[in-house]
User: Which sequence fits this backbone?
């Protein structure tokens, strides 16, 4: 459950918590995701607000939160923007934000992808296509590679953290050593969950 972004974990948790379509409270979601600090709770509230705005969660009539199941194969935001641009050839960034229900940064990132591929331009708050780009939406390999590299660095950092905890726990006798060993064991469990 720890893998993926916070939004992805909230979406997955919503599907689990709302199996009988009875809805769930924010506290249920917080408990399910193991939120322990105020900072984590604030991040979770932000993610829930964003998912409500994006239509990935819903507020039920009784005030509880509920899942929104998207049909399999529903288009991504990038695919929606691509289809809209293919039909209209050009669009303001704000229009693409509304059509795809995407953040300005997401739309601008898509515009930069089109520029890198020579398929389009982004100028003066507007994205437009060049020539006949073909039917297939471009895939952002650079972004995928960056995400893969980040996950690898994160994994290496967690491994070194686990090793350091284990080493310190072995060197500390008494009560401090027991606490450190407990921290190291808990951290190891989290690492194992992330690898599943």
Assistant:
């Amino acid at each position: 459950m720890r893998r993926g972004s916070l939004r992805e974990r909230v979406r997955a948790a919503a599907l689990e918590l709302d199996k009988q379509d009875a809805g769930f409270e924010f506290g249920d979601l917080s408990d399910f995701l193991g939120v322990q600090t105020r900072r984590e709770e604030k991040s979770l509230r932000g993610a829930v607000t964003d998912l409500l705005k994006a239509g990935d969660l819903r507020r039920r009539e009784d005030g509880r939160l509920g899942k929104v199941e998207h049909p399999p194969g529903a288009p991504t935001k990038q695919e929606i923007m691509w289809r809209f641009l293919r039909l209209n050839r050009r669009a303001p960034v704000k229009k693409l934000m509304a059509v795809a229900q995407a953040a300005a940064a997401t739309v601008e990132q898509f515009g930069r992808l089109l520029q890198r591929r020579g398929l389009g331009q982004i100028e003066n708050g507007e994205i437009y296509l060049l020539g006949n780009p073909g039917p297939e939406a471009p895939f952002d390999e650079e972004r995928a590679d960056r995400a893969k590299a980040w996950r690898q660095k994160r994994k290496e950092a967690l491994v070194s953290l686990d090793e350091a905890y284990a080493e310190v726990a072995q060197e500390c006798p008494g009560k401090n050593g027991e606490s450190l060993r407990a921290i190291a064991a808990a951290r190891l469990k989290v690492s194992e969950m992330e690898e599943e």
